[in-house]
Amino acid sequence: MALKARALYDFNSENPGEVSVRENEILTLYGEKDIEGWLEGVNSKGERGLFPASYVEILRNDAASTVNNNSCIDNLSKPSAPAFATFSQPLQQPQHHSYQQPSQGSDDDWDDDWDDSSTVADEPGTIGGRYHDYEGNGPSTYRVTTSSVSRGNAQQAKSSATVSRNLNRFSTFVKSGGEAFVLGEASGFVKDGDKICVVMGTYGPEWQENPYPFTCAIDDPTKQTKFKGMKSYISYKLTPTHTQNQVNRRYKHFDWLYARLVEKFPVISVPHIPEKQATGRFEEDFISKRRKGLIWWMNHMTSHPVLARCDVFQHFLTCNSADEKAWKQGKRKAEKDEMVGANFFLTISPPPAPLDFQEVESKIDGFKTFTKRMDDSTLQLNATVNEFARKQISGFKKEYQKVGMSFKVLSQAFEMDQQVYSVGLNQAISFTGDTFEAIGEYFAEQPSKDLDPIMDLLGLYQGHLANYPDIIHVQKGALTKVKESQKHVEEGKMDRAQAEGINDRCNIISCATLAEIQHFHQIRVRDFKAQMQHYLQQQITFFQKITGKLEEALQKYDNA
Amino acid sequence: MALKARALYDFNSENPGEVSVRENEILTLYGEKDIEGWLEGVNSKGERGLFPASYVEILRNDAASTVNNNSCIDNLSKPSAPAFATFSQPLQQPQHHSYQQPSQGSDDDWDDDWDDSSTVADEPGTIGGRYHDYEGNGPSTYRVTTSSVSRGNAQQAKSSATVSRNLNRFSTFVKSGGEAFVLGEASGFVKDGDKICVVMGTYGPEWQENPYPFTCAIDDPTKQTKFKGMKSYISYKLTPTHTQNQVNRRYKHFDWLYARLVEKFPVISVPHIPEKQATGRFEEDFISKRRKGLIWWMNHMTSHPVLARCDVFQHFLTCNSADEKAWKQGKRKAEKDEMVGANFFLTISPPPAPLDFQEVESKIDGFKTFTKRMDDSTLQLNATVNEFARKQISGFKKEYQKVGMSFKVLSQAFEMDQQVYSVGLNQAISFTGDTFEAIGEYFAEQPSKDLDPIMDLLGLYQGHLANYPDIIHVQKGALTKVKESQKHVEEGKMDRAQAEGINDRCNIISCATLAEIQHFHQIRVRDFKAQMQHYLQQQITFFQKITGKLEEALQKYDNA
């Protein structure tokens, strides 16, 4: 059977050799091993080409590959799928909404969570906003098999889960490990150095500040070759301020690190690394643009109290690239890190006072609305700014240069006047022509100085905004479990201690989520303030330069 | 028989009720009397409407109306047309150019003189540049009937002209009176006050400066009515500095004055008055534009040493409009002025030393080339500036406002963030949005401040440039007569005294022409210098205003 993969995101081919893929599209692969982060395969239209390996997940069993025909998605929510659930479902589905069709299963969960109608958990009776609708609405017959979960063995624990489990195994709540953690299935040995503190700040929970803040410079990349010139690649020189030791890293290292971070931190918005590009990888423009993107990325990494300190990132920043053994050792260690996903939450130490979940829910909902609005407005701003840059480079430049040229033509005509007393005027008009041509050039050059950085900023934040639906999903999933467990306790189906455990763990997830949101707002305000100031300063300099040039031209008329 | 008129210039209808006419087109009139400078009639396509009275000449006899079928134009150069010539033509036309067809007559003279191939005088053997080709090239049998011309009676003198006369009675050289003057047919009583001195200046002949320079303000026009509101018109308040008495004048007065000036001064470039407009005459935009045009016109009138001082202009500027009798008296006097056309040259007193005609010819040719180049370049500049203004009003404004709007949308999204510490940033971004919207407005408003005046200037000079072919034509015609007379003297067909008279009179025309060209260059340098300075100053102010606005926006981030 051919190796298949499912596209996780849309990818639009931009270069020859690439092939576009749509989210959820099933692809046939030519091989499992990626080439510099790219996989080769055939999409559902039969088009063959490259696509980023990180945009797809390889399907390793039949169950997964049947997703292709969409028929199993409905099945996933049926209790008859024993692979996904070890507990009994209600024998009778409550028919609380007349328009709800039985076939309307967990498909919604495949979509991005921006849609307000999407649900966090799929079981009837556990959907956040609809929670209270269910009181007394038909029998709820969840059977509690064990009242406590062994921390020692998550694998075993799975088979003795006590509250309903999300049946959609592609749900972020499940995949991130959020569900496993809430249900008490996470286990791992937390070293003191791994402890991550959430403290109560002025505006709510926040990540404890990094006591040893640092930044990291990314110097001009150089083209390197290996295998006697058979393979070439771009190497970036990284110099972190806390070690002052330069290390060389390739894009694939960034890509590897990114994958580790995303895997490890379920409720942290890992900044997206600049996009992959198969062709033109060695072109100056592309390299310069990628470097700028990596600088932005690095800035967000080092600014983050949790990401900045984590082992894999430190290994990436500090391991001498020449010491291949040390590098591989650290790499293997990171890949075998147990404190990822569900276990990551074990490392979080929340503030002493637990949060009020109603307040948390309101905050999260507010943030969700906010991110939607911010996403819309940054998209719009990005389109406007992009068009504005294009206009300045083409239209504005052309207009000023046409005016400049016409002044020059006039001065050339005037030079034929045979009158000595007009020589000064002719020269001044000619200079004015040059001036307007120069102003046209200024307009064309300006966007790279002020609009491009804005677009870089917007791109980075669009990446963050794309992360948040999943983060919110995890927190909402946890909250749903709390509500569910409360109901079970009320109904006598769950003991109070177990419910309190769920409560505590939801508190940890909520603290981490709110700390992350708080961090997002803080760097957002910092970044947008800095970038708006930079833009305005650049614009002021730009218009002052024009004014100066015009003043110079005006002076030429003094003795004309 | 219906009243006919011939179009002197192209007129493109711009408003409903107007009809387009082409140069030389024959029109049928509904009446001879113009309404506010407009005539009503039917063009050759059968379209009925208004056209400017000054664009046509009314045809008052059959001979003129036959121009319609173009058949008489060739006839005009034939000796068998006794109405136009009283002397014998060569019996045999020299066939000096193989491509010259017999039918190629004086049609060329109808065209504008920009074309280098056009001729000044139509008789073979008298064409400027070809003059020497004719030496010994076939017999030249001009018969000299009288050796001296009586100054007492130009009408009688005509019948006893001694050198060839231009056979195209529509030739500017003929119409202007230039030919009549050169041939010694002009006559009139020159009062001391009418004397116009051409002096030798640093750069050649110039008009003697006006010893009593003045300017004239044109204040905001008001709408007036007469016949108890039956008729309304716009009245302009004129205040000349030398009288300080305000007079009211209507557009039709300007139009009348313009016609007098054009008639009177054959080699002076009378500035064109703003264009006529049948509809929308009372609209504010139009009135404001016309007033600006009249100010430019007035500036050129008062700057001109000859025009500024002439009686009809002084009458126009100083006669109390309430004193209808005085106005009519002055009007009648101006219309009966004998010192117009040919006789105008009688009033000119040249510098003592006669000019070197070869040098004059070279200067005139140089100026002709110059005007052609200036005409091309001002046309191009006008088109560019017009387009630039349009772009600023539409495209530039739109781009800045779109950016402003996008910033505002972003600030509105940010206002949903529930974070107190970002209030300052949100307000600053919102202010930045307003700033860019304001900058868009600035761009849209700017052209009326700096590009419109440039277009007004270019329009005025395009009028002057349109005058010069005729002026050059008159001087070239005179020079042709000199060459012709020299040849006649050499051949013993003309006595030396008569030739000297032609020489002297050509010297007067040449002095006046060069003085006018010198004046043109001086006001051109003055006007373009002033206007370029004004434009640059306005642009500097404009960009400083933008910079100031951006600085204001930047400050908002200080405490954000």
Radius of gyration of chain A: 29 Å
What's the assembly state of these chains?
Answer: homodimer
Number of strands of chain A: 11
Task: Average the pLDDT over all residues of chain A and give the rounded result.
Answer: 79
Q: What's the SSE pattern of chain A?
A: EEEEEHHHHHEEEEEHHHHEHHH
Sheet having the most strands of chain A = 5 strands, antiparallel
Q: Give the low-pLDDT segments of chain A.
A: 62-161
Q: Major sheet of chain A: order of its strands?
A: 4-3-2-1-5
Total count of domains of chain A: 3
Q: How many DSSP helices of chain A?
A: 12
- Could you tell me the strand content of chain A as a percent range? 5-15%
The fold-level CATH name of the largest domain in chain A is Substrate Binding Domain Of Dnak, Chain:A, Domain 2
Most residues in contact, chain pair and counts: A-B, 64 and 64 residues
The CATH class of the largest domain in chain A is identified as Mainly Alpha
InterPro entries (chains A, B): AH/BAR_dom_sf, PX_dom, PX_dom_sf, SH3-like_dom_sf, SH3_domain, SNX18_PX, Snx9_fam, Sorting_nexin_WASP-bd-dom
Region (Disordered) (chains A, B): 89-138
Biased composition (Acidic residues) (chains A, B): 106-116
Binding site for a 1,2-diacyl-sn-glycero-3-phospho-(1D-myo-inositol-4,5-bisphosphate) (chains A, B): 250, 252, 290
